[in-house]
Amino acid sequence: MLDGLAQQVDGIATCSTFLKGTFVGRSPSLAAKTEIIFNGVNTQLFCPKEEIREAKTIFFVGRFDEEKGVLQLVRAYGQVLDRHPGASLVIGGATGFGVHRESDYVRKVREIAQSLIRDRNALIHFPGYIDHDKDLPSWFQRATVFAIPSLFQEPFGMVSAEAMACGTPVVGSNRGGIPEVLGDAGILVNPEDIDEFASALSTLLDSAEYRTSIGRAGLFRCQELFDWNIIARRWLSLLYESKRSKNSFVGV
């Protein structure tokens, strides 16, 4: 199928080297026609506001299901409380886009959260679905640390780039395209290693200087690689070349 597709198109775009790598070995002819164009971030909307930054808030936003690693995050947060008893955890998102279902998985996460609240005086908040343009930027701007503990192979991990645009240090899963997004400007962990995950979060909460360093590195990386002004120019260039040669084009 991939070789057949290669004969029908003159261009393919993927949002990460990781995604391109999923078919490189199976169809060299298709891989040869593939360009990597990262997803773009609106850096006018997603930008730092240090005046509202909170002292010890760990933030997550994403689909509330097993493959996003929410359960691992709550367990890691339980260990973070040993070093930072005043730290809070915000888990944003629903089981679907604007729709939420109290699944068995959601109930399990909430039960563990409730036990931490009861036994450890934990501060855990579930705001539910967060509107992307209206509300999400301020959640990133207020967060001390952003966590993206995906258990599956994320093709890109858009929320990590948006957090970086807000100058928020990111602790991310070492899977899929997330390492490619973070580069050296974030902390990568195995999200299923709860000790490692908790240690990374705690280390950032330990030091304002370290958080600032990681946050600035992430901000600069986002401005250089993911700003929509840069990404749009790459798309325009690719589409112009396709139109000039009357080529067909596919984006992935």
Molecular structure report:
The protein contains eleven helices and nine strands. The relative contact order is 0.18. α4 runs parallel beside α5, α4 crosses α9 and α7 crosses α10. The protein has a domain of 176 residues: Rossmann fold, CATH 3.40.50. Helix content is 47%, strand content 15%. The model has no long low-confidence stretch (mean pLDDT 93). It is globular, with a radius of gyration of 20 Å. By secondary structure, it is of the alpha/beta class.
Annotate the secondary structure layout.
Elements: H1 2-8, E1 11-14, H2 17-24, H3 28-31, E2 34-36, E3 57-61, H4 70-83, E4 88-92, H5 104-120, E5 123-128, H6 136-142, E6 145-148, H7 158-165, E7 170-173, H8 178-182, E8 187-189, H9 194-206, H10 208-225, H11 228-244, E9 249-251
Parallel strand pairs: 1-2, 1-9, 3-4, 3-6, 4-5, 6-7, 7-8
Helix pairs in contact: 4-5, 4-9, 7-10
CATH-scheme architecture of the domain at 50-225: 3-Layer(aba) Sandwich
Radius of gyration: 20 Å
Output the CATH class name of the domain at 50-225. Answer: Alpha Beta
Number of strands: 9
Overall SS class: alpha/beta
What is the string of helix and strand elements?
HEHHEEHEHEHEHEHEHHHE
Strand order of the largest sheet: 5-4-3-6-7-8
For CATH, the homologous superfamily of the domain at 50-225 is named as Glycogen Phosphorylase B
| Major sheet size, sense and barrel closure | 6 strands, parallel
**Stretches with pLDDT under 50, minimum 5 residues:** none
Instruction: Tell me the distance between the termini.
Output: 15 Å
